[in-house]
Structure formats: C-alpha cells, structure tokens
Amino acid sequence: MATAAVIAFWFATVLYGGATVLYAYFFLSKRPSYSWYATFFTGAGFLCHTASIGMRSVAEDGTRLDGQNQLILLAWALVLVYFVVEHLVKFKVYGVLLVPAGTLLMVVSQFLARKGAAPVSPLVENWKIGIHVAMIVFANAGFIVGAVASLAYLLQERQLKRKKASVLFKRLPPLASIDLLARRAIAFAFPAYTAGLMLGIVRAYETDQRGWWADPRVMLAGLVWGVFGAYLALHYSERATARTTARLALVGALLVAVLAVVARTVPAGFHVFGV
Amino acid sequence: MHLVLVGLSHKTAPIEMREKMTFPAARQAEALSQLTSDGAVAEAVILSTCNRTEIYALSADAERGVEAVLSFLTDYHDLDRHDLVRYLYIVKGEAVVRHLFRVVSSLDSMVIGEAQILGQVKEAYEHAFENGATGRAFNRLFRQSFEVGKRVRTETAIGENAVSISYAAVELAKKVFDSLAGRTVLIIGAGKMSELTAKHLVCNGAVDVLVANRTYERAVELAQRFSGRAIEYGALFERMRDADIVISSTAAQEYVVRKADVAEVMRGRRGRPLFLIDIAVPRDIDPAVNELSDVYVYDIDDLNGVVESNLEERMREAERAEAIIEDEVAEFLRWQESLEVVPTVAAIRAKAEAIRQAELERALKRLSGLSERDLATIDALTCAIVNKMLHGPTARLKAAAEEADGYLVVEAARELYGLDETEGGRGSGLLRTLLNRRAREIHDTHAAKETGDGLGC
To answer: Which residue, among A72, A67, A70, has the nearest Cα to A5 in the 3D structure?
Structure first.
C-alpha cells in the first residue's frame, strides 16, 4: 500500500507538472483547448493525489502530520480550492499561477522527507489536533489563492498605470474581479485559520504546555493571523487602497511560506511534531 | 466546371467606383436572374458591401465565365468597360476558394478581424440560394466558407481586442471595472467624440450619464440623448465623486482636471477606482492625475497605442488564420476532385476489376483440370463482360462532364457504385444529398439569419 501511495504521489506530481506547462501555453496562446487539457491533467493529478493521501493514511494507520505530509495536504487543499475558484469565477487564468504553486509544494515536500518512522507526540493523539491541522491547511490554501490574486492585481494595475497593452494585460482578468476574489478567499480562510489556532491554543492549555507561545512556529502563526486580520480590517473599512491591501496579502503569503518551510526545519520549541 | 471571381474592393477601387457598383438587396433577384440567363454562368453569388462588390460564378469555361460576368457588370451598371476593368480583379480556380475563405474570415477587410463580413456573405449566399442561382458546387463552397469564418473566429483571437478609439476606451474601462453594468459616466464637454465614447459605454451597461459643459443648454441637450442629467459646470468635482468613468473633451487650452482636484475627489470615494478618458487636444486632464492610487488616466495617444497594439495582435492572429484557410482550401479541393470524371471512371474500373478477379478465383477453385488455354479463354470472357458493362456508363460520364450540371451525374455514379463507402462516408452521395438537402438548407438559412450584422453596409 505504501509503495502504491508513493507511485500515486509521483503520478500526481507529473500530472500537475504537465498541467503547469499546458497552463503556460494557454496563457501565452489563449487557445481554449490547452486550458481544457490543463484542467484535465489537474483533475487527473488531483485524483492520484487523493488516492496517494488515502493509501498512505491506510498504510500508516492514520494521516501523519509532519512537515512533509502537511505540504502534501496543503497542495491537495490548494488544488481543491482552485477547482472551486474556477467553478465560481470561470477564470482559467488563475490555474496559471495556482497549479504551479501546488506542483512546487509537492516537490518541496520531498526535501522535507525524514528517514524512518517519525516519533509520534502524545499531544497529537487527539481529535482537536486533527481539526487544528485541517483548518490551518485549508486556511493556508485560501491565503495562497488570495495572495496569487493579489499578485495578479498588482501586475494588472501596473499594466494599466503604464498604459501597456501587453500580453499580460490582455490575459489577466479585470482589476475589480481580481480584487473581489482575493478579498473573498482571504475572508473565507481567515475564520478557518482563527479556529485552527484557537484549537491549538486550547490543546496547549489542556496539556499544560508552559511557554507554548514562545515557539517560533506559534509566533509566526500569530504574525500571519495579524497580517491577514489587518488585510480584512483595512479592506472592509476601506481605509487603504486596493494596492496597499494587495501588498499586505503578499506579505502574509510570504509569512505562510516561511512558516510552512523554514520554521519547520528548526528543531526546537513546543511545536516539534510539526518538524 | 470552373470557379471564377470578378470583383473590386477598397484595396483596388475608390469609393466613387465602389458606390457605382453596388447591388442593393432589393435588386439582387433581378441581377442574379440576368447574370445566370447567359448559359456561360451555371451558378452565381453577388456579394455587395460598402467595401467590396464581388461576383462569384461557376462556368463550364473559365474565359467565357469571366467574359459573361464582365459584360453583365458593364451592362447592369451602364459603365464603360475600359474604365471598369482598371479597378477589377479577376480570380480563377483554386484561388477563388482561397479568396472567399479569406474574405469571410475578414482577412481581406479594411479592419482585419471585423465581424460584419461573415453575416454579409451569408446574406449574399441566401439571396442567391433563394433565387435558384446556386447549385451543388456553390452550396458546398459557401457553406464551407461559413464554417471557415466560424473556425477562424473561435480558434484565433482575430476578432478580439478593440481597434477603434471609442471601443478601446470601453475595453480599458472593462479591465478596471469588469462589468460596466450600473456604472456612472461623467462627460465633460459636449464634443462628438465624447458622445460616441459615452454611447459605447452605455451600450455596454453604464446606466447613469452626467454631462457638464460650460454652456448649460448644450449639456442638457447631450444629456437628453442618453436619458442622463446635465450638471452645473461649477459642481463638476463634487459630482465626480459619484462617477466611475470620466470622459473629457473640451476646447479648453489649459488643464480642466488637475491632480489636487482629483485627490480631493478620491478622498470621498473609499477606494472606488476612477477611470478618466481624455480625448481632448490640447489635453484636459493633467497627466499627473495618473499618479494617484486607484485613478487611471488615458489620453488620446494612450488610446491610440492600445489600438495599435491590438492591431498588431490581430495581424499575428491573421497568420494563424491563413493556416486554417489553407487546410480548408485543401479539403474543398479534395471534394471537388472527387467529382471529376477521370478519377471516378478509374475508381469504377478498379472496383469492377477487383470483383472480377475475386469471382474468377472462386470459380476456378471449383473447376479443376482446366488447361492453360481454357483459363485464358475464361479470363478473356470475364474481361469482355466487365468492359462491355462499363463502356456505356463510362462514355456517358465523360459526356456528362461537359455539361453544366455534369458533377451531379458523377456524384450519382459514385453513389451507385459505392465508391466513397471506404472513405468513411466523406462523399455523401446524391441520394442522401437529395434527402438531406432541404433539411440542411432550412437549418443554414436560420443560422445565417441569426448571425448577420450588416451595419448598413
């Protein structure tokens, strides 16, 4: 079963890679057939990805929540969220940025592979931690979607300001729809993130963890929460321009990346089971 | 049968000549009847738009066909032949197919990628069809041309991106706001160009039009045309807070809209973007306004730049369209070739020979002890039967090829001998054609009516 899971994982990665190339062709040529094949490859990759996660969980008597598997789960959630976005806004162009992000997460996850079985912390053996991880994984996927949309916003705004009718200008969606997508993605992700963090805090209190807040991962998570909280506050109160909030979303996404990859390589602190 | 095209267009003839050569829809029946009354022209379609007049004809003899069309044009429009010929182009054979496909794909249009021509060609074909001026060849050619037109528009981006100043403004506004539905347009100055731009914006969903002009009466007059509201010129910046799109086209010699004014306006808008189109020369809007957040200013040069870039993209797409056209020309030629007599006769003979050989082999298996001489006699006998059976049809097919509607006989022969069965039914055959013709014609006529857009051309 474990071998089948690995094979399915690589199939998924290759299919996402193929979809990335096809989305790039679609972006440059704007031929609908490329986007159809790209979506097909992404869908096939997603099925393999789901099968891989399922088989691995069966082989290991549960879903591991280490750094490697969390990136794999994040990639899975990202592709799932992408399909929802594509269904809702009908803009295939987001696939050009989101599917490569998913592929990258799959590849990066392989650098975090640990040899031998990971020690299972007693803290993890609780339903609250399962929900905590699931919430944060989905919230991160939402933040990435929001950040990708924000990046598209800044690129499109720059094209409009510079008055260049470039390929980028023609292919990217209108400013209003990009901004709306970014805001909605972050607005949906933020409560999930908050709930995920709250569950983690509750679990820390339950297990009487002293100084849990001093862990670099916990502090970074707090920073991510603060940045996206500020994003929503500024956006909905209309006290900042869309350009400023887009930049804020990119900062938030950068922190998510730091938290997901760099912080997990630091083997110290309370949150060690995430390493 | 030979395809012939005689015509003139914006590329070869001035407007004075083009207007003399028009065929109004109401007079096409009479013109087609006159054109086909001469035995030299078997089928004809007259395409008449503001930019071109073309006569497509099918003739047993290409030279006679051209002559007949030229005589018809000079007689019908009462023109001097020598004057007329200077502006005409004459195309024959395969080049006619390519020309029609290029025309219908708008590669030969004044504005490459414009959408009206497909509807205009459909309309021309419909007139010819209804007046009995088309037959099997032109029905196939023109119907395929409509498919080519559709393919080019769907498989390339030739029709995308605005190529006029006013449409470019609309396209840019959509890049900011996505949909223009419910947007408010503020017009400063009651010029013609701002009126045209506003008209396009309103057609695309903008609902509220505010007009500010130094002469209040002119503002009222323009506002009435859009069911909008005239505002006092002094209240311009106060009302700009409500606007999403501003079009400025005044005769002022200095900037009418300055950065400080717009900065003040933006304070009350809570991040709502403002798109300003300056089509005045000298400019009305200080370019520094573009530096403000959520404000986008486009002057006439910027809009021209967008148009030029879009035209360049259309030219690139035109190259892809040419490749599609070459594919389609080849397909039409294959179809046309299948209707020629020589390959048909050869195919009938090949099929008969294959049957003869198979039957002979089967019979010889049952007949044992035959001498070499007997075998040769039987072989000669079967050959003679086949040859005699095929002699009559072959001779009649060759004779029919000389007739105007000879291809119908050829197609009937292909159907009766089942020559196209192995090619996946590519040749539909006369019997099936006759059964399906009416249904297809009704369908195509409806489809043509749905897409036609003449814009008065």
So the answer is: A72
B157 touches chain A (CB under 8 A): yes
B317 and chain A: CB distance < 8 Å anywhere? no
Chain A nearest-CA residue for B267: A239
d(CA A219, CA A200): 13
DSSP symbol at B340:
-
- The secondary structure of A61-91 as a DSSP string is TS---SHHHHHHHHHHHHHHHHHHHHHHH--
Q: Do B271 and A241 touch (CB under 8 A)?
A: yes
Distance (Å, rounded) from C-alpha B283 to C-alpha B280? Answer: 5
Do residues B251 and B378 share a domain?
A: no
Nearest CA in chain A to B172: A160
Q: How far is B308 from chain A (nearest CA, A)?
A: 9
Q: Using the beta-carbon criterion (under 8 Å), do B175 and A30 form an inter-chain contact?
A: no
What angle do helix axes B94-104 and B300-338 make, rounded to 10 degrees? 140
Domain of B117 in residue numbering reads as: 2-155
In the sheet that B245-248 helps form, which strands lie side by side, from edge to edge? B229-231, B208-212, B184-188, B245-248, B274-278, B295-299
Give CA–CA dist A274/A137, Å, rounded: 13
Q: What CATH number has the domain bearing residue B179?
A: 3.40.50.720
State the CB neighbour count (10 A cutoff) for residue B330.
Answer: 12
ipTM score assigned to the predicted complex: 0.77
Q: What is the DSSP code string of B207-268?
A: -EEEEE-SSHHHHHHHHHHTT-EEE-GGGHHHHHTT-SEEEE----SS-SB-HHHHHHHHHT
pLDDT at A84 over 70: yes
B267 interface with A at CB cutoff 8 Å: no
For residue A243, the chain B residues in CB contact (below 8 A) are 293-294
Cis status, amide bond into A174, omega within 30 of 0: no
Tell me if B262 sits within 8 A of B274, measured CB to CB: yes
A166 contact residues in B (CB cutoff 8 A): 309
Give the strands of the sheet with B43-48, arranged side by side: B43-48, B52-59, B2-9, B89-92
> How sure is the predictor about B436, in pLDDT bands with cuts at 50, 70 and 90?
very low
**Residue that finishes a domain, picked among B125, B155, B185:** B155
Q: Which residues of A touch B287 (CB under 8 A)?
A: none
Residue with tokens 């259309």: B314
Q: Are residues B144 and B183 in the same domain?
A: no
Q: Note whether A184 contacts B: Cβ–Cβ < 8 A.
A: no
B50 is catalytic: yes
**Residue holding tokens 């393999």?**
A48
Q: For residue A67, what pLDDT is reported?
A: 67
B345 with B172: CB under 8 angstroms? no
**Residue B240 · residue B248 · CB < 8 Å:** no
Bridge partners for B8 per DSSP: B53
Q: Summarize pLDDT for B308-328 with one digit per residue, the tens.
A: 888 888 888 899 999 999 999
The reply to whether B347 and B419 lie within a common domain is yes
